């Protein structure tokens, strides 16, 4: 496994719509392993392939106290409710913003072995899935911030109340 370089704004790959993965081969498996290692090293709860320079529809996530997992070609099929969250992003270091997201989502996709999966999520997992799927569509959480007074400069390596996703 290897640590990958996390891309930061204004890198163009962060604004591209990522390509669907049609073949889950050894290259994709290695990318998944490297992305998990990179996410863990950066203390993130999620990482999308475009954030490491690969314009592919792939994300890895790890909730506190749980095992990491990958989701390939994820798609939100249902969302409900609303939650206000303070979000950060590994690709937008030094900032956090208040945004609104659905409180719960159902996401379908493939696991790392190509098996169909469906995830019903709420709270942090819902937020993280939505955040990573936004990345796959070329969107960032800062696009959802309603006004500049809801975007904050943060201490980059401090333990803030938000987590970088």
Poorly predicted parts: none
Radius of gyration, in angstroms, nearest whole number: 15 Å
The percent range for helix content is 10-25%
CATH topology: Peptide Deformylase
CATH second-level architecture: Alpha-Beta Complex
Q: How many strands, what sense, and barrel or not for the largest sheet?
A: 5 strands, antiparallel
Summary?
The chain has 165 residues and is an alpha+beta fold. The protein contains two helices and eight strands, in the order H-E-E-E-E-E-E-E-H-E.
How would you characterize the overall build of this protein?
- With 165 residues, the protein is α+β, with helices and mostly antiparallel strands.
- The protein has one domain (12-153): Peptide Deformylase, CATH 3.90.45.
- The protein is 18% helix and 29% strand.
- The strands form two sheets. A five-stranded antiparallel sheet has the order 1-2-3-6-7. A three-stranded antiparallel sheet has the order 4-5-8.
- β2 and β3 (69-80) form a beta hairpin.
- 33% of the residues are buried.
- The model has no long low-confidence stretch (mean pLDDT 94).
Topology:
Elements (H helix, E strand, L loop, with lengths): L25 H16 L4 E3 L9 E4 L7 E12 L2 E5 L7 E7 L2 E7 L5 E7 H14 L14 E3 L12
Antiparallel strand pairs: 1-2, 2-3, 3-6, 4-5, 5-8, 6-7
């Amino acid at each position: 496994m290897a640590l990958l370089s996390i891309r930061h704004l204004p890198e163009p790959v962060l604004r591209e719509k990522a390509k669907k993965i049609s073949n889950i081969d050894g290259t994709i498996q290695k990318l998944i392993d490297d992305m998990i290692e990179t996410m863990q090293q950066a203390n993130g709860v999620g990482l999308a392939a475009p954030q490491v320079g690969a314009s592919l529809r792939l994300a890895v996530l790890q909730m506190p106290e749980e095992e990491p997992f990958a989701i390939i070609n994820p798609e939100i099929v249902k969302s409900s409710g609303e939650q206000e969250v303070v979000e950060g992003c590994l690709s937008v270091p030094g900032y956090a913003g208040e945004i609104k997201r659905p409180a719960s989502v159902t996401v379908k996709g493939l696991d790392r072995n190509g098996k169909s999966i469906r995830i019903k999520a709420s709270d942090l997992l819902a937020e993280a899935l939505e955040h990573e799927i936004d990345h796959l569509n070329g969107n960032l959480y800062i696009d959802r911030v309603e006004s500049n007074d809801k975007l904050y400069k943060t201490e980059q390596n401090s333990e803030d109340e938000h987590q970088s996703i």
